[in-house]
Structures are given as C-alpha cells and as structure tokens.
Amino acid sequence: MEHDNNFYLSFSRLSTYIKCPMRYKFIYVDNLPTIPRSYFSFGNSIHKVLETFYHPEKNFIELGKSPYKYMLELLDASWISDGYSSNSEEIRAKNEAKKILTDFYRKSIFAFRPALFVEKSFSFNIENFELKGRIDRIDERAGHFTIVDYKTNSIMPDLFREEDFLQPVIYYIAGKEILNTNKIDAVSLYFLKFDKKINFSFDDSVVEKSKKRIHEIGTLIQKGDFRAKANGNCSNCEFRNICLAFSGK
Fold it and tell me: How far is Cα 216 from Cα 236, in angstroms, rounded to an integer?
C-alpha cells in the first residue's frame, strides 16, 4: 500500500492497475525491477526521432538540414538497443523503424509545421490525486489546438479498452490545463505502423465519467486492493513465478 507523499497517478500506472493490480503492486509498491522489452525500445526510439523532428527549435527548418536525411540521422542517434534477443532481430527492427518513419515522412512533410510543444509535461489534480504525464506533441493552427500521441502497436485495435480510452481523455484534460483554453479540436492517436490516425473529441459528461473512474482506481490503490488478475499477458510477465494468479495457488 502506498502512503508516501510522492504518490501520484499517470496513464501508465492506471493502465497497469486496470490490467492487473498485482503487477501494479510489484512495480510501483514493491519496486521490483522489470526486464527490458524490445517493443519498448522500438517505440521509444521512434518517439525520440519525432520529438526532435517536430521540436520548435531543433527541427530541420531551424537547423537548415535536409529533412529526410535529418530524420534518418535522428534514427541512428536515437536508437535504443535494449531488449533485443539477437543482432539480427535488432537489425530487422531498425529496418522496420526506417520504413515506418519513411512512410510517415512521405505523408506528412508537405504540410509540415513545427509543433507548439513536444514531450510537454503536465500535472493536475483529480480531487485528492495528482495525475502526471507527458504529451508527445501539441500543434496550434489559428488559435485551435490538436494533441498528438504516437503509437507503435503491432495490432490496430477494433475496439478501445477502458485503459486505451482513458489516455486521450487524460490528454484532453491536460491540454486544457496547459493551454488554458477550450479550443482543443481533437486528441489524435497516430498508429504509425498502420499509417492511421484516430481522432477523439469529448463532451463534459465523458470527461466527468473518466475523472470518476480515475478517482476510483486511485482509491483502490491507496486501500491496498492488489488482487491478481489473470490475462493474456501472464505467460510473458516477469513476475509470473511469484504471482498467485499464474501459479494457481
């Protein structure tokens, strides 16, 4: 159970708890180490490239660089090797990342404008819980704003689960706090492997419902409700040998 003054919520923490409260406890309460995963390294590498590519001061226009060459330079500089099982697996992943970024470049370069913010930190309160995080990109056009979050998932969801839907709502609330405006036209989840963008907009009822759910999860965490929840990820979980749900004890 968490009682310290440093306790906070984030989308990542909320998502972990929804999927398996016991895994949340292992990571955020017991502070047990997680193992490097290649898909995290892959996603973080691409995120870092696009962060710099759209950065207000570090973009290719400000630096006077050739845009496509600059993007490939950023991939080399940003590449994270952790979690790959072999050199050949890493090479295949980097080639895939190059293809994803090339497809993104071809679609986006002619309408390119630097972002207003990249990797913008936020912190706001939902009742007595602090919620923290970072937004990948915020664009501004004629006084209206769009929030963009990059996804490198290998599967394109047909239906959004609760933990998936909470993320754009959190970013919408955070955007209003950061920008002090209601002129947020959309929160866009950009699934890069599929070159598809899904836009979300919200009314007040959806926002309030999501705030209530976040508060419920925070309350369960502080009460120490960490029951194990068996799911499709159990066989790959690094804590399976000490988890009651997986062992069946």
Answer: 28
Which residues does 37 contact at the CB level (< 8 Å), separation at least 6?
83
Q: Which amino acid is at 142?
A: A
Query: What count of other Cβ atoms lies within 10 Å of the Cβ of residue 110?
Result: 6
Q: Cβ atoms within 10 A of the Cβ of 101, count?
A: 21
Contact 162, 202 (CB under 8 A): no
pLDDT digit string (tens) for 89-115? 999 999 999 999 999 999 999 999 999
Q: Which residues of 12-37 are buried (b: 16+ CB within 10 A; e: fewer)?
A: ebbbbbbbbbbbbbbbbeeeeeeeee
CB within 8 Å of 207: residues ≥ 6 apart: 169, 172, 173
Q: Is the pTM of this model over 0.85?
A: yes
> Residue 2 has what pLDDT?
46
The residue among 135, 131, 133, 161 whose CA lies nearest residue 221 is 131
